[in-house]
Design a protein that fits this description.
There is one protein chain. By secondary structure, the protein is mostly helical. It has one domain (5-48, 118-260). Helix content is 61%, strand content 7%. It has 8 helices and 5 strands. The protein has helices spanning 23-45, 53-76, 78-83, 98-113, 120-144, 172-194, 202-218, 236-260, and strands spanning 5-7, 12-16, 19-22, 159-161, 168-169. The strands form 2 sheets. A 3-stranded mixed β-sheet has the order 1-4-5, with no helix packed on it. β4 (159-161) and β5 form a beta hairpin. The termini are far apart. The model has no long low-confidence stretch (mean pLDDT 89).
């Protein structure tokens, strides 16, 4: 009988009396710290005012959290949360959706861009690189929490999440984390090598195509996340990924056509 890796780590990283730090919180903090460092490097590289970064990341952080929470409530279990609207505010109970997080970031950047001189697309391109790296840490946090697990599997690298059950499962959180890291490397390469040769917004559009293509296919090995069922062969996450993917593709095609004229 094959021996599978058993994952049973305590989600609580460390506790100091009333102060409790969870692994997920640590990974979330790592995502924003790495975002700050990376964005600072970009600003310095382009001779921009680094003092603006604090405000920018506040808009992104708030947009991420609010959008992700609303996305989880309205996309994945609307019946429950519309019937218990105060529960939408209970973010500490868990429940953040990446699709809603993207919408929140885009809206937060729109609000921030109105205060400065740089174009909206300029911010979208750079924040796309940052968010791909941040997503790497967030999915690691999900792994530590033993949440968003994969479907049962017998592959040699399957993981038993003891806090869930004793079935070996796809470690889909790690699949997604690794995917986001390679997407980050792709976007960073585009930023370094061709950002001045392509239409503004193309890096962001590329991130939409790459992230949501990965998300679409990984949904096949992920357990159902929604609180309601449907007869479609696609999951809620896949249905939600399609508009983002198509939007990115349309913008890339549009940019190529404009360049060819």
């Amino acid at each position: 009988m094959m021996d599978f890796f058993v994952w049973d780590i305590d989600p609580l990283f460390i506790s100091f009396g009333f102060l409790k730090i969870r692994w997920y919180g640590l990974m979330f903090a790592s995502a924003f710290i790495s975002s700050y460092v990376l964005m600072s490097w970009m600003y310095q590289r382009e001779n921009q005012n680094t003092e603006e970064i604090d405000d920018l990341l506040w808009y992104v952080a708030i947009g991420t959290i609010v959008g992700a929470r609303l996305g989880h409530c309205l996309f994945y279990d609307p019946a429950y949360y519309l019937g218990h609207p105060l529960k939408i505010l209970a973010f500490w109970e868990g429940g953040l959706a990446s699709h809603g997080g993207i919408i929140g970031i885009v809206f937060g950047l729109y609000l921030y861009q109105r205060r400065v001189t740089q174009s909206y697309a300029w911010f979208l391109d750079r924040v796309a690189v940052v968010c791909a790296l941040g997503g790497t840490f967030i999915r690691l946090g999900n792994f530590f929490n033993s949440e968003i697990v994969g479907i049962p599997a017998t592959v040699p690298w399957a993981v038993i999440f003891r806090r869930i059950d004793l079935l070996p499962r796809h470690p889909v959180q790690l699949y997604e984390s690794i995917s986001y890291f390679f997407i980050f490397l792709l976007l960073l390469t585009l930023y370094i090598t061709v950002k001045d040769k392509i239409r503004p917004g193309v890096i962001f559009a590329t991130s939409l195509v790459a992230v949501f293509t990965a998300r679409f296919f990984l949904e096949f090995v992920k357990t159902q996340q929604s609180g309601y069922s449907h007869e479609s062969w696609m999951s809620t996450g896949q249905w939600l990924s399609i508009p983002f993917l198509l939007a990115g593709l349309c913008y890339i095609v549009f940019s190529c056509c404009r360049k060819a004229e």
